[in-house]
UniProtKB/TrEMBL annotation:
Keywords, ordered alphabetically: Cell membrane, G-protein coupled receptor, Membrane, Receptor, Transducer, Transmembrane, Transmembrane helix
Keyword Membrane belongs to the record: yes
Alphabetized Gene3D superfamilies for the sequence: Rhodopsin 7-helix transmembrane proteins (1.20.1070.10)
A biological-process GO annotation: neuropeptide signaling pathway
Record membrane topology: Multi-pass membrane protein
Cellular location(s): Cell membrane
Source organism: Adineta ricciae
Protein name, entry field: G-protein coupled receptors family 1 profile domain-containing protein
InterPro entries for this protein: GPCR_Rhodpsn_7TM
């Protein structure tokens, strides 16, 4: 949760990222990841209180849990596709393609994708039912074939990874040509930085999320009952490893950004020190009725955002 919160603060507080479509997409993706983490925490609270996640007891909760998870997973994956596509168009040498994408279009596309995945997940999870000794799983054979041959291997597996990778490779090629174009240095640096950040997220998606899609396809076709002790234990072990990679994918993006991008690391530090901490400090001082003068301590240089 810390990493996604830092991403949201950095992309929303710095003027450098305002009205930048890729920064908007990464912000929305971080919000989706944060909601996914909150859902995971809620499920773990249920397990700690009642011994299970209640999906085997309530059909409504069974369907709601998987519908919410599907919406967040699909939205996260295809938001990265939108971010990669936006970087390709915004770095293109043709002016009409650069002007094709706007922040208003980015907001509209995000809203449309939310509606599409919400409708899809609601319809899809109507096929989920509670089966004895197995739990909440797909019972309709038609939807089972759909999830086996299209949903997990293609819709949330290969398709978003291929789309995002293709656009990001093309955007990276465009960025290498930016030097030849007469653009402001700040614009060049921002385009290069956003292309690098989106590329990092796409690589993380391909490496850390692919095992989850493969495992879900396998587990739906070969459900293991708890009575089969050895096979059940092996399946649970593989599930734990796959889920660990899955949560790394949605949790570590900020820290990977900071490790691989010194510029982004400086921007995060600036956001925490000069923006968030200063606002928190001023509010605390106002509550205690202490008179402070913010303009007398920091110099003008300290208020300049890092490029």
């Amino acid at each position: 949760m810390i990493g996604n919160t830092l991403n949201i603060l950095t992309f929303t507080q710095l003027k450098l990222f305002q009205n930048n479509r890729s920064a908007f997409y990464l912000t929305v993706e971080s919000i989706s990841n944060l909601l996914n983490q909150l859902l995971f925490i809620a499920i773990n609270i249920l397990i700690s209180l009642y011994g299970d996640d209640a999906t085997e007891k309530s059909l409504i909760w069974c369907r709601f849990r998987y519908a919410a998870a599907q919406v967040l997973v699909l939205f996260t994956s295809y938001t990265l596709c939108l971010a990669a596509g936006d970087q390709f168009f915004s770095t293109n040498y043709q002016l009409n393609l650069r002007n094709l994408c706007t922040i208003r279009l980015a907001r509209w596309l995000s809203g449309i994708f939310v509606c599409i995945w919400l409708i899809h997940s609601i319809v899809f999870t109507t096929s989920f039912n509670i089966q004895p000794s197995i739990g909440c799983t797909i019972s309709d054979p038609i939807w089972l074939r759909y999830s086996t041959y299209f949903f997990y291997p293609v819709l949330i597996g290969l398709l978003p990874i291929c789309i995002a990778s293709l656009f990001n490779i093309l955007a990276f090629r465009n960025v290498r040509r930016i030097v030849r174009r007469q653009l402001p240095i700040a614009r060049r640096r921002l385009d290069q930085q956003m292309t690098a950040l989106v590329l990092i997220r796409v690589v993380m998606l391909a490496v850390l999320f692919s095992p989850y899609a493969i495992f879900r396809t396998y587990s739906l076709n070969t459900p293991t009952a708890q009575g089969q002790s050895l096979q059940y234990a092996v399946t649970r072990l593989i599930q734990a490893i796959v889920l660990s990679l899955y949560w790394l994918n949605i949790s570590l993006s900020c820290f990977v950004f900071m490790i691989l991008s010194p510029r982004y690391r400086r921007q995060v530090v600036f956001t925490l020190k000069k923006r968030c901490w200063r606002r928190l400090k001023s509010r605390c001082l106002m509550k205690t009725n202490q008179v402070t003068s913010e303009n007398s301590n920091p110099s003008n240089i300290s208020n300049i955002e890092p490029e």
